[in-house]
UniProtKB/TrEMBL annotation:
SUPFAM superfamilies: ATPase domain of HSP90 chaperone/DNA topoisomerase II/histidine kinase, Homodimeric domain of signal transducing histidine kinase. Pfam families: 2CSK_N (PF08521), HATPase_c (PF02518), HisKA (PF00512). The lineage of its organism: Bacteria, Pseudomonadati, Pseudomonadota, Betaproteobacteria, Burkholderiales. It comes from the Bacteria. CDD domains: HATPase (cd00075), HisKA (cd00082). This is histidine kinase. It comes from Rhodoferax saidenbachensis. It is an enzyme of class 2 (transferase). One of its GO terms (molecular function) is protein histidine kinase activity. It catalyses: ATP + protein L-histidine = ADP + protein N-phospho-L-histidine. Residues 250-458 form the Histidine kinase domain.
Amino acid sequence: MSAAARFSLKRQLLVWLLLPQLVLWLMGGVLAFRVALAYAEKTIDQSLTQSVRSLARQVKPLGSGLLIDFPRAAQDIMEQDPSDRVAYMVSSPPGSFLLGNTKIPAMQPDLYMPDNEPRLYEVVLDGKPMRVASMDLSFGDGFTDQRMRVQVAKSLVVQQRIARELVRDVLFPLLLLGAVLSVLVYEGIRRGLAPLERLEAQLAHRATASLSPIEMTQAPEEVHSLANALNHLLTTLRRSLSQEKRFLNDAAHQLRTPLAGLISQTELAMQEKDPAALQQRLTKVHTGAQRSAHLVHQLLSLARTEAEVALHPVDVATLAREVAREWTPRAVAAGVDLGYEGEDALTVPGDKLLLREGLSNLIDNALRYAGKGSNVTLRTQVRDGHCLLEVEDNGPGLSAEHLERVFERFWRASELPGGCGLGLSIVAEIAQRHRGTATARTTLPHGLTISFRLPLQG
C-alpha cells in the first residue's frame, strides 16, 4: 500500500482545514504589515509637512537677505531622539547650504517646484533610508528675485517600528484565535470521526459465524448510510453462508445413502459368479449411479436458484413451447401425451436459464408420476395482471395432506425410483427469485396442477 493510501482521513481533514487557515494568517500578516507601513508613512508625511512649514516660517526675508529666527531650543527639539534621526537644511539658492545639521540631497531629477508647496520623496543618508519634505520659497526686494529651499528629513526607522508594533498588536490576538480554532477543529474532527471508529471496532470484534447487523444509534447520516450498506452486505453474506451450509448438509445427507448402496452392490458384484446375478447387480449399480447423478444435478440446481439473479425480459410463451418440444421424446417413451396451450407471446422479467429449469422440473415430475396413458399439458396465460405458467396432468394426483408438503425439500409422496424430493423445491425457489409464487392444486376429477405465478413485464 502506498503512503498516500495510508494517509488517514483525520490527517487529511486536519491538513485541508488548518493549512488554509495558516496561509490566510500569513497573507493577513503580510497585508497588515503593508497597511501599517502605509499608515505610518502617512503619519510621517503629515509630520514632515508640518515641520517643513514651521521651519520655513522661521526664515524671514529682510531686504535682499534672510533673517533666520531658529532658536536653539527648537533645534534641540528636532534632534532630541537619536534613534529617530531628523535632518534639516535651508539652502539659497536651492542646493547651496545655508543652515542645517546635514546636507540633504534634492529630489531626482531636481525639477522646478512651485512656491509654498511641499514635495515628499525618499533618500539615503549615511546608509539609512529617510523620508524628505522639501519646499521652495521666493524672496527679494522687487528688483532681485531669489529662491530659498527648506528641507526636513526624517528616518524611516520609526515608520518600521510603528508598522511592526501594529502588526504585532493585530497578529498576536489572531495567532491566539488561530490556536484556539485549531484546537476546536481538531476536537470537531475527532468527535466527527468517532462514529467511524466505533464502526471499525464493531467490525473488528464481530464473529464471522454470527454476522449480526451493526447497531449505530447515535451517528451522522453519512455513517448511518455506511452502516446500512454494511448491514445489507452482512445480510447477503449471512444468507450465502447459510445457503452454503444447508447445501453441504443436504448433499452430505442425500448422497450418503446412494453411495453406500453403490459400494454395497459393487462389492457383491465382485463376489458374484453367476452371470445372470452379476447382470442384476450391475443393473442396480447403474440405477443407483443414475439416481446419484440426478441428485447431484438437482442439488446444484437448488444451489443456483438460491443465488441472486438478474432479471431481464423473457418471452415465456416461446420458452414454454421450446421446453415442451425438448421433453416430447421422453413423454412418448413414457406413454404420456404432452401438449402446449396458451399465449403466442408473453413477456415477464426473469432469468431464462432458471425458468427453463423450473419448467423442466415440472414436466419431469408430471411424466414421472402421472403414469402411462395420462395427459400432461403445459399452459401459459394471463390472469389478474399476472403470468401463470402451469403444468397440469390427469394422473392419480395427491391428497390434501400431501398437497401441503409438496414443496418441502426431500419430501416424496411416492416411492417410485428415480426421484429425490427436490424438483418442486427448486420450482418454489425459482418462483421466489422471480418475485412470484408456486402453488399446487388438485385437478378434478383427478390429477395435479403446479403453477408459477409471475409478475408481467412493466
